[in-house]
Amino acid sequence: MEKLQAVRGMHDTLPGETPKWQLLEDALQVVLHSYCYREIRLPIIEKTELFARSIGAGTDIVNKEMYTFQDRNDELLTLRPEGTAGCVRALLQHGLIYAGPQRVWYQGPMFRHERPQQGRQRQFYQVGAEAFGMEGAEIDAELILVCARIWGALGIEGITLQLNSLGSHRARHSYRKLLVDYLSAHRGELDEDSIRRLETNPLRILDSKNPALQGLIDGAPSLLDSIDAESAEHFAALQDLLDANGVEYKINPRLVRGLDYYNRTVFEWTTDKLGAQGAICAGGRYDDLVTQIGGRATPAAGFAMGLERILALLECSGAEAVAGAPRFYQVMVGADAVNSGFRLAERLRDDIPGLPLLLHCGGGGFKSQFKKADKSGAEYALILGADEVASNTVLIKPLRTDAEQYKVTQEQLAAEIKRLL
Ligand code: HAM
Predict the structure, then answer these.
(1) 380 contacts 398 by C-beta, under 8 angstroms
(2) How confident is the model at residue 355 (pLDDT cuts 50, 70, 90)?
(3) Residues with CB under 6 A from ligand 1
(4) 268 Cα nearest atom in ligand 1
(5) CATH class of segment(s) 18-168+227-316
(6) Domain 328-420 in CATH: superfamily?
(7) Are 24 and 311 in contact (CB under 8 A)?
(8) Is 323 a residue whose pLDDT tops 50?
(9) Residue 25's closest CA among 86, 87, 107, 104?
(10) 361 secondary structure, DSSP code
(11) If you average pLDDT over every residue of the chain, what do you get?
């Protein structure tokens, strides 16, 4: 019989890998909480209409990439391709959106039926932050500073912040006309994808990676030249705040993003270490989304980061991956040692919360248990045999150095472990 495999583009995270995920998630949470963002937990499935109305009917995500299905009541549902739309829906539904400024964050799997490749999965994980009710550029700056602090906490260096302003929706609409006129005059030079986008989403042509189009794109009218005066002011205020806080950025007038809900600020943090999938985090302002979903106009901005890409970047930057190995491996030979060893280990866990102690299970003599202790990656073996039980002691054997093994009493053990930690 054919062996069943995970769905293409969807990956298992095995126990050997979860510690680095947990470490990453913890680091992100510490920073988000320090800026007073509060966690919101959202359903993975939403009504399809939510995404069509927010991300935009002309976008690749809605057109080609959503996992959409009819449930048993014939309701059209979609596995969320991103978190912003669901977050707005939830805050609106529960009346939080008008309850003064809100700062929330979320995490979890997102689903897009894209062509899987290095750094691009069909199920991938995001951590996102969204802020509501704040119009000024301060919140745009704060969101970017949160990201910068996250990179600092993770030891990520050498990434670029790309920044642009899309202006108001009205300004973008006028620009769209200008761009379509320009590109239509050069229709013969466009590739198949761009010809399709000329009708559906012409701004995305600016984002094309096709080298043959770069000359044409360079000659296109600049979006920044046609943004409205208020948006230009907002953008200048954001840049002042970033400058004052030492955040470096590159203005990229071609940065348009693949989701339609943005206006004014858009940004992307990119690396050149991950090949084509270099965006590790992206976001911007979306002042009209609440209205599109059925609420009253509410300014909003946010970002989301791709956890797989951040982990890949950490790995290729040589940042130390957490092995998730135990620090202590308790060797117990004989029934009496198992009995007293279990009680001892429970007392140690009471005394030292979070102690990475692995108990040998499954019997065997000293030699075979030492082998397993060694393989576990632990730094010390805590040894209990008949002698130790009789004398109420434990033998501590360093496994990674040539240091001598030594005995301590069971009462002294917790203090000794704390010293070793
Ligand atoms: P996005 O640019 O579509 O924006 O995704 C944000 C990040 O998710 C990307 O920069 C990337 O790191 C990661 N990502 C996206 N697609 C994949 C994939 N197929 N495989 C692996 N990683 C991926 C949004 O989703 C917006 N909701 C961001 C936002 C929040 N804007 C305002 N608030």
Answers:
(1) yes
(2) confident
(3) 82-84, 112, 114, 120-121, 124, 126, 128, 130, 258-259, 279-284, 302-306, 308-309
(4) 10
(5) alpha beta
(6) Anticodon-binding domain (3.40.50.800)
(7) yes
(8) no
(9) 107
(10) -
(11) 93
